Amino acid sequence: MSHETPGKAPETHMTQIVFPGDTNHYNSLFGGIAIGWMDQAAYIAAVRWCRRKVVTRHTSEIDFREPVRAGEIVELVAWITRTGRTSMRVRVDLWVEQVLSDRRTLACTGEFVMVALDENDHPTPVPPLVA
What are the residues whose beta carbons fall under 8 Å from the beta carbon of 124, sequence distance 6 or more? Predict the structure, then answer.
């Protein structure tokens, strides 16, 4: 689902449930799975922004703040924070909530740089983000 928020790019929301197969021996979400979900959310936000093929060019620090346990709900929220000529910087927040509670906690954050490609897989311009 995407919606317009005045003054910033539309947000992309993805929801996942953490299954036991997504966790490590400490019963918390594997970091690689969390990063994969975050990359997917960044991809969708970038594609929605430019309506072109996009690829991940770079990730900045991924900040794991709280463990995410099996059985919890994860919501990923992604939005464009900056554009270059052919690139988009996408912020992704990973929120966690327990199934039997409406308490939400910011569990992980990160930024991804996505690059738009033309039909020949060359970088191509993207619409500018106007603050």
Answer: 52, 86, 116, 117, 118
The size of the chain, in residues, is: 131
C-alpha to C-alpha distance for 13 and 75, rounded to whole angstroms: 7
Position 52, amino acid: R
- Rounded Cα–Cα distance for residues 35 and 73 (Å): 16
- Strand boundaries in 19-72, DSSP class E: 53-64
Closest listed residue to residue 17, CA positions, set 78, 99, 79: 99
Residue labelled with tokens 């960044």: 42
CATH topology of domain 2-117: Thiol Ester Dehydrase; Chain A (3.10.129)
Give me the tens of pLDDT residue by residue for the chain, a chain 131 residues long: 343 443 357 899 999 999 999 999 999 999 999 999 999 999 999 999 999 999 999 999 999 999 999 999 999 999 999 999 999 999 999 999 988 988 999 999 999 999 999 999 999 999 999 87
Q: Which two tokens stand for residue 40?
A: 């997917």
Domain ranges of the chain: 2-117
